[in-house]
Design brief:
This protein has 768 residues and is mainly beta. The protein folds into two domains: 82 residues, Immunoglobulin-like (Sandwich); 534 residues, Maltoporin, Chain A. 6% of the residues lie in helices and 53% in strands. The chain has a 22-stranded antiparallel β-barrel. Strands 11-16-17-14-15 form a five-stranded mixed beta sheet. Strands 1, 4, 7 and 8 form a four-stranded mixed beta sheet that branches.
Length: 768
C-alpha cells in the first residue's frame, strides 16, 4: 500500500510538471478591431482557422485569445457590413502577440442605422419597413460623375433617359416611372418632380454617407410623390468627415469630373463640411452617323455646404445649402449657341440654376421634438429647336415631429406643410408671364400623420400609420399603412407591409420638358389624384460561414394596384402628349432577389435580379407599360490581392425587352428593345498612404441602342423641323411618297444610354 502511495505521488508530480511545461509553451493573441474611420467594431468575430480557438471583440473592439499552442495559424476577422480579413501568423511558445485589424465597409449593410422607413434612427434589421442601404464603397466599384448614373447597379432601380437629344431622364423603381419616385436629401423633399435628374446630379460623392431606398408606397410618412418608392441621400456628419478629400476622374471620351471636400471648425460651437463638384464634357461624337450628338455636351458646377452646431444635451441643429448650375446641349453637329432657339440648325439647349436650403432643429424640450425645413428654387431656360421652354418652380417645406416611447409603444406624431409654385411659358399655365391670362400653378399641401410601432415580444413587432392631407385642388386624402416584422431566428427575418400612396397632379416633369420641342401638351380633363394600394413581403437570411465569411439573402414580392392613373398618351396623336386619368387601373407586381457574400480570401459578391410585370387595363384591354422591362439583373464581383493593396471590380446589369414608343402603325422601328447589358471593370490600387488610384473600362460590350438596328433611333433626324411632313386636320401625320411611314421628328424613342465603350482613370486623396 505504501509503495502504491509513493507511485501515486510521483505520478501527480510528473503530470503537474508536464502541465506546467505545456502551459509555458502556450501563447496568446490580443488586439483591437476598428473601421477605417477608427470606430471600434464591437462583437466582431476573431477565429483561428481550423481550430477551436476564437472569441468576439468587446464594445471597444478589443479581443484576447489565451492558451494557444505554439504554431502557425491563419487569423480570420469578420464583422457584418465589413469585408472579412485574414492574416497568417506564427506564435512562439510563451509569446503574447498584439495585433490590430482595420476593416473596410462592404456593400453588405445589414447592420446599418437607417431612418427612411420610420423617420427614426433604427438598426436596419430592427426596422419593420424594409430599407435597402448603399454606402460609398458600393458606388466606388463603378465610379460615375453623378448619383443618377450610379443607380444603374442597384437592383430594381433604373435611370431612364427620356430624350435622345437632351439626355434628360428620371428614376424608375420596380418599373414605375420617375414621377412615382420621391427623392430626398437628408430626409427633406428637396428634389422636385421637375428636377429629378438635376437633384441627383452634382451632389459631390465625397459628401454622401449612404443612400437609403424604400420600394413601395411611403406616402403615409412622406406625402405626395412617394407613391412608388423613395430615395433618401444621407450626407456626412461634418464632425466625422475627413479633413480633406479629392477625387478627380477622366475618360477617353474627354469627360472630366472633380469632387472636392473640406472640413473645418468655427470655434468650438460648429463644424462645417464643404463640397464642390465640377463636370465638363465638350466633345462632339456621332458614332451612329445620324448627324446628332450621341451624348449632350455639358458643364456643371455644384457647391454644397453643411453646418453642424453643438448644443446642450447633444441636441441636433444642422443647416445645409446647395447651389447648382448646369448648361447642356445636344443636337446637330454643326449647332452653335448663335442658333439657339432658331429654325435653321436643330439643337436642344438647357440652362439650369438651382438654390436649395435645408435644415433640422431639435427643440429644447424634454421629449424629442424635431423641426425640419427646406426650400428650393429651380429656374430652367430651355429651347427645343425653335420652341422655348421657360420654367420657374419654388418649393417650401416644413415639418414638426414628436417622438415618444411609452412602454411597448414607440410613437411618432407629425405635421407637415408643402407649398409648390410653378410657372412656365406653355399654354398649360396660361402662357408667358407677361400674358394677362397667365395662371401659375400653386399647390398647398398640409398634412398630419401618426405612427405607432408596437413591440409585442422580442420576435414580433407591428407598425400602424395614418396620414391625412388636404389639397387645395383635390380635397381630403387619407393614406394608412401597416407593417409587421417577425424575427423568426437571430438570422431569419420576415416582414409584411401593406399601405397606400398618392400623387397630386403635377404634369411638369423632365419627361414633359424633354418632349416639349416635338409635341404639344394636351390636358384632356380635370385630373384627379392618383392612388396606389400595395402589399409587400420581405424575407432576409443572414449568413455566417465557418471560414469567417458573411453575407445575406433577401427575397421580396410586391403587388401594387393604381387607380386614377395619370396616363401620358403618346400614340393617339404623333404631335401631342395627351394627359388623362386612365379609365381603368394599372398594376405592378413582381419578385426580387438580392444576395451578397464577403469571403476572407478576398472575394466579395453582390447579385440581384427582379422579375416584374407593369401593365394598364382600360376597356377590358390589357397593355404593358412603355419603357418597362420584365427582367433586370445586376452584379458586383470584387477581389482583393497583393495584401489588399489591389482590388478588381467587375460590375454590370442586364435588362429584358421593353415596349417602345412608336409614332404609328407604319413606324418601321422595332416595337420592342432587345436584351441589353452594360458591363464595367475596374482596378484600384491602395498601396500608398492617403492615395488611391483607379482605372478601367466602362461599357465593355460597347452596347448602344442603335447597334444591330437598321432603322435610325431618332425618327427623321434629317428633318428635325418637320418641313417635309404633312398633317391632316386632326394633327396626324399623313403618309406621302416622301414620308411613306408617316413619321415626324421624334427623339423620345430611347431605352438605353447612347455612350459606347470608354476607358477611365482617377485619383483619390484624403486626409483623415
Amino acid at each position: 500500500m505504501n509503495n502504491f502511495n509513493l507511485y501515486k505521488s510521483l505520478l501527480v508530480v510528473l503530470l503537474g510538471s508536464i502541465a506546467m511545461t505545456a502551459q509555458g509553451q502556450q501563447a496568446s493573441l490580443s488586439g483591437r478591431v476598428t473601421s477605417v474611420d477608427g470606430e471600434p467594431l464591437g462583437f466582431a468575430n476573431v477565429a483561428l482557422e481550423g481550430t477551436i480557438y476564437g472569441t468576439s471583440t468587446n464594445d471597444d473592439g478589443v479581443f484576447r485569445i489565451s492558451k494557444i499552442p505554439a504554431g502557425t495559424y491563419k487569423v480570420l476577422i469578420s464583422f457584418l457590413g465589413y469585408e472579412a480579413m485574414q492574416k497568417r501568423i506564427e506564435l512562439l511558445a510563451g509569446q503574447a502577440m498584439q495585433l490590430d485589424f482595420v476593416l473596410e465597409a462592404t456593400s453588405n449593410t445589414m447592420d446599418e442605422v437607417v431612418v427612411t422607413g420610420t423617420m427614426k434612427e433604427v438598426n436596419r434589421l430592427e426596422s419593420p419597413v424594409p430599407v435597402e442601404v448603399y454606402n460609398p464603397t458600393f458606388f466606388k466599384k463603378n465610379p460615375t460623375p453623378n448619383i443618377y448614373e450610379a443607380l444603374q447597379n442597384v437592383n430594381g432601380v433604373r435611370p431612364q433617359l427620356n430624350c435622345q437629344v437632351c439626355n434628360t431622364g428620371d428614376i424608375h423603381i420596380n418599373g414605375l416611372e420617375g414621377p412615382y419616385t420621391m427623392v430626398l436629401i437628408d430626409g427633406m423633399p428637396i428634389v422636385s418632380s421637375l428636377a429629378t435628374v438635376y437633384g441627383l446630379s452634382g451632389i459631390p460623392n465625397s459628401l454622401v454617407e449612404r443612400m437609403e431606398i424604400v420600394k413601395g408606397p411611403a406616402s403615409s410618412l412622406y406625402g405626395s410623390e412617394a407613391i412608388g418608392g423613395l430615395i433618401n441621400i444621407i450626407t456626412k456628419n461634418p464632425e466625422k468627415a475627413p479633413l480633406f478629400t479629392a477625387d478627380v476622374m477622366g475618360t477617353s471620351w474627354e469627360e472630366l469630373n472633380t469632387d472636392l471636400g473640406v472640413k473645418f471648425n468655427v470655434g468650438d460651437k460648429a463644424s462645417v463640411l464643404t463640397g464642390v463638384n465640377y463636370y465638363n464634357y465638350d466633345n462632339l461624337i456621332d458614332n451612329n452617323n445620324d448627324n446628332f450628338t450621341d451624348v449632350t455636351n455639358q458643364e456643371r458646377v455644384s457647391v454644397f455646404q453643411k453646418w453642424n452646431f453643438k448644443r446642450r444635451n447633444n441636441r441636433l441643429f444642422t443647416l445645409a445649402a446647395r447651389y447648382y448650375w448646369e448648361d447642356r446641349w445636344g443636337g446637330e453637329l454643326n449647332w452653335t449657341p448663335e442658333f439657339r432657339g432658331g429654325d435653321e440648325i436643330y439643337g436642344e439647349a438647357i440652362t439650369t440654376e438651382r438654390w436649395e436650403l435645408l435644415g433640422q432643429y431639435q427643440l429644447p424640450t424634454v421629449d424629442h421634438m424635431l423641426f425640419s425645413f427646406s426650400f428650393n428654387t429651380h429656374d430652367q431656360n430651355s429651347v427645343y429647336g425653335d420652341t422655348p421652354y421657360l420654367a420657374d418652380q419654388k418649393i417650401g417645406f416644413g415639418q414638426l415631429t414628436w417622438d415618444k416611447a411609452v412602454g411597448k409603444h414607440d410613437l411618432l406624431v407629425g405635421s407637415a406643410l408643402r407649398y409648390t409654385y410653378y410657372d412656365d411659358n406653355t399654354p398649360a399655365t396660361g402662357g408667358e408671364a407677361s400674358d394677362p391670362n397667365n395662371r401659375p400653378d400653386e399647390i398647398w399641401l398640409p398634412g398630419i400623420f401618426v405612427q405607432d410601432e408596437i413591440t409585442f415580444t422580442s420576435k414580433h413587432k407591428i407598425l400602424l400609420g395614418l396620414r391625412y392631407d388636404y389639397n387645395n385642388h383635390h380635397g381630403n386624402i387619407f393614406t394608412p399603412r401597416l407593417a409587421y416584422k417577425w424575427s423568426i431566428t437571430p438570422t431569419d427575418i420576415f416582414r409584411l407591409n401593406a399601405g397606400t400612396g398618392f400623387r397630386v397632379v403635377n404634369l411638369f416633369t423632365e419627361d414633359h420638358a424633354a418632349l416639349t420641342g416635338a409635341r404639344e401638351v394636351v390636358i384632356a380633363e380635370q385630373l384627379a389624384p392618383e392612388q396606389s394600394y400595395n402589399v409587400n413581403a420581405n424575407y432576409i437570411k443572414r449568413l455566417y460561414l465557418d471560414n469567417g465569411g458573411s453575407g445575406s439573402i433577401e427575397l421580396s414580392a410586391w403587388y401594387t394596384h393604381f387607380t386614377n392613373v395619370i396616363f401620358p398618351d403618346y400614340e393617339t396623336n404623333a404631335n401631342q402628349i395627351i394627359y388623362d386619368n386612365l379609365d381603368g387601373f394599372a398594376v405592378t407586381k413582381g419578385l426580387s432577389l438580392n444576395a451578397d457574400l464577403s469571403l476572407p480570401n478576398g472575394f466579395s459578391f453582390l447579385l440581384g435580379g427582379s422579375l416584374m410585370d407593369v401593365s394598364t387595363e382600360e376597356g377590358g384591354i390589357r397593355e404593358r407599360q412603355i419603357l418597362t422591362e420584365r427582367f433586370t439583373g445586376t452584379w458586383s464581383i470584387s477581389y482583393k490581392f497583393l495584401n489588399n493593396k489591389l482590388v478588381a471590380d467587375y460590375t454590370g446589369n442586364v435588362y429584358g425587352p421593353m415596349r417602345l414608343p412608336l409614332l404609328g402603325e407604319l413606324d418601321p422601328r422595332p416595337a420592342e428593345s432587345p436584351w441589353w447589358s452594360i458591363q464595367n471593370i475596374q482596378l484600384t490600387y491602395r498601396g500608398m498612404p492617403q492615395f488611391e488610384m483607379y482605372g478601367g473600362v466602362k461599357n465593355l460590350l460597347n452596347w448602344t441602342p442603335w447597334k444591330n438596328q437598321n432603322e435610325p433611333i431618332i425618327a427623321r433626324s434629317f428633318d428635325p423641323f418637320d418641313r417635309g411632313v404633312e398633317f391632316d386636320e386632326g394633327g396626324n401625320v399623313v403618309a406621302t411618297s416622301g414620308n411613306p411611314n408617316a413619321l415626324s421628328f421624334d427623339p423620345s424613342y430611347v431605352y438605353a444610354p447612347n455612350q459606347g465603350i470608354r476607358a477611365f482613370f482617377g485619383i483619390r486623396y484624403s486626409i483623415q
